[in-house]
Amino acid sequence: MAPFSKKNKSKKSFPVKVTTMDAELEFHVEWKATGRDLFDLVCRTIGLREMWYFGLQFIDSKGYVAWLKMEKKVQHQDIPKESPVPFLFLAKFFPEDVEEELVQEVTWHLFFLQVKESILSMDIYCPAEASVLLASYSMQAKYGDSEEATGKPGDLQSENLLPQRVIDQYQMTPEMWEEKIKVWYGDHRNMSREEAELEYLKVAQDRLEMYGANYFPISNKKESELWLGVTALGLNIYEKENRLLPKITFPWSEIKNISFSDKKFTIKPIEKSSPDFIFYSSKLRTNKLILELCIGNHDLFMRRRKPDSMEIQQMKVQAREERTRKQIEREKFAKMKQMYEISFREKEELHRRLLQVADEARLAQDALVGPASTHRPLGRLNTVSWLPRHRH
Questions:
Q1: Cβ–Cβ contacts within 10 Å for residue 30, how many?
Q2: CA separation (Å) from 193 to 100, 105, 108, 143, 241?
Q3: Cα distance between residue 92 and residue 185, in whole Å
Q4: CA 276 to chain centre
Q5: Pair type for strands 85-91 and 13-19
Q6: What's the pLDDT score for residue 190?
Q7: DSSP of 227-272
């Protein structure tokens, strides 16, 4: 019997609700189902094949963020005691280069929605100029070239486009922000939704220092408070008041081993002459999560430096063929639209000229007839005056 059913409500199953960035999915899960069973079902349901970036997140009984372990049974993990059991389907790991690595459009879309939410909720710091540019790509992804978003002043004010911190930082009216966004929005004409979302991610990746980083509070031997950032490229150590510029960086390629014992973490460099870096984190559950993210990011780092597997090669070929097909369709549609616009303009011009000719003909007729007041009606002529008289 399959471990999942959308309608099965037997006593041997329990309901779960998985919330992705744009949908809610509900299933009934057998008690013996593993985290992998549930995760694979979600990926199949949304058509995702690049599943190695994602995971199922939940809040455990202690209030900590946790990720569902793939090999353990769902019921044997510290999942919420709710019905249905809530999970979030989120990106757990980030690519080094979104344009080079991400293949499927559904993958771009999920990353776009998650990064956008993190920026708007101010989990990721985003300066004003980048915020406006990202807002313009967001509008292009949502509306395309539609006049709906660029018509009347005030049309964009109902959209959640800018972080509140940026809005509060400047003394600008909503209309002024709208005008700035529309200037950039106009430059994205003819860009598809997928292209706009990819450009959004590229800007976030290249300009935002907090993009793709998981932060954890730590301390050093001197008990100074610091931040640890776990990223696709390695580990960063930040001062307490600055999570933008790292104080120390450990690329994955230079790390030999990471381990922890109770509250103590040790980063052992490959270079023997380099000393070990030791830091402390007070929560055991947080420490397990740090190590989990380190292992996952390091594995992906090494995987990127190997030739693509057959599966990824096939995905890339299929993605290129699909993008080529869509590009041909877009070009065909654009050509038809252009021909329609030309035909419409020609009809408008012909109609205008016909009206002009009619006006000219009417004016000419009026000129020939002359003013009505200078002529007497024929019915009022005195015909007697010109008849010959007869002599008697």
A1: 19
A2: 18, 10, 10, 8, 37
A3: 31
A4: 40
A5: parallel
A6: 86
A7: EEEE-SSEEEEEETT-SSS-SEEEEGGGEEEEEEETTEEEEEESST
Residue 176: phi and psi, rounded to 5, are -70, -40
Tokens for 336, please give them.
Answer: 């038809």
Which residues, in sequence order, are bridge partners of residue 54?
A: 91
Which of 63, 60, 53, 64 shows the shortest CA–CA distance to 74? 60
Mean pLDDT of the chain: 88
Cα distances (Å, whole numbers) of residue 333 to 6, 190, 301, 326, 338: 39, 11, 41, 10, 8
Distance CA 102, CA 113 (A): 15
Does pLDDT of 378 surpass 70?
no
CB burial of residue 2 (10 Å; 0-12, 13-18, 19+): exposed
28 membership: H or E segment, kind and range: strand 24-30
By the 8 A CB rule, do 36 and 42 touch? no
